Each structure stands twice: as structure tokens, then as C-alpha cells.
Amino acid sequence: MLLLLALATCRQEDMYSQEKAVGWGKFFPFPGRMTMQHPVPGTVARNPADAPVPQPPEITAAMLARGRRQYNINCVPCHGQSGDGEGMIVQRGFPKPPPLFNDRLIKAKARHFYNVITHGHGVMYSYADRVAPADRWAITGYIRALQRSQHAQVAELSDNDKQHLQESNP
Fold this sequence. Notes:
The protein is mainly alpha-helical.
């Protein structure tokens, strides 16, 4: 009876989305009310720290090309080629991520995408150990290009792009 009472008081959403301490945030049980503590003097790091990356860097054609390659490697299995959330993993039963071109994500700041790649979100795990910080920004830039492509108006295109569009769709 006691076990049933304990189970009845647990709600999945409470256990699934628990509060967590954020690096360099405030947390009262630790000394100095800091979540992360400075290492003991003389500590040797196991992994070198990531090189600092401009936040966010200027978007260039080379950066978008790199972002596209990295998106195709890391993101397409779930998010799909166009960002619609219909990747191969989803077609095999994995939960569908939201389309990258929905209003909420179009309005999101670039840092949101960088942080999701770094820390994960929902059922998406962290890609921090798989995607370098500069590549996270490149993927973020490519996501912005995908979002823009979904809502692009023909009138906004250059004459060269309009001609290319007409030639590819006779």
C-alpha cells in the first residue's frame, strides 16, 4: 500500500524535467554559492578546453557550406534534409522533433540553436562531444538559411536567382 502511495505521488513530467544547476550559476549548498567550483591548485585537465569562438561569428558562404555539411552529418537523421522533422530515424519510430521553420524557432535567437546542439533538448542528447563550437555556429547559420528558404518570396530573389529558378522548373 505504501509503495502504491509513493508511485501515485510521482508524476513523469516532474521527474523528466527536473531543475538542474547550470555551470557557474548560483547554488546555495556549495561553497561560495557557486555550482561549479574552481579546480584544486595543481590539477591537470584531462581534455583541453575548447578554443574561444566568436559569438556568433559573421556568416559567410564558406561558413554556410560547412554548416550544411555538418547539418547533413549530424542533424538530417532526425530533422530531415529540409528541417521538417521527418528524418529517417523519425520514420523508424523515434519521436519527431518540431520543424525548424515553425514560428517559435524562427523567432528564437541564434544562441538557442547553439545551446541545443551543445546541451541537448527534450529527447535530443548533447552533441558537444561530436560537434566543435565553430561547427555549432555553422549549423546554426545553415538552420537560419533553411528557415529563410521555407518562407522566401520570389520577389525577394535576385534576377540571377529568378532566372535559375525558372530554368530548373520549366
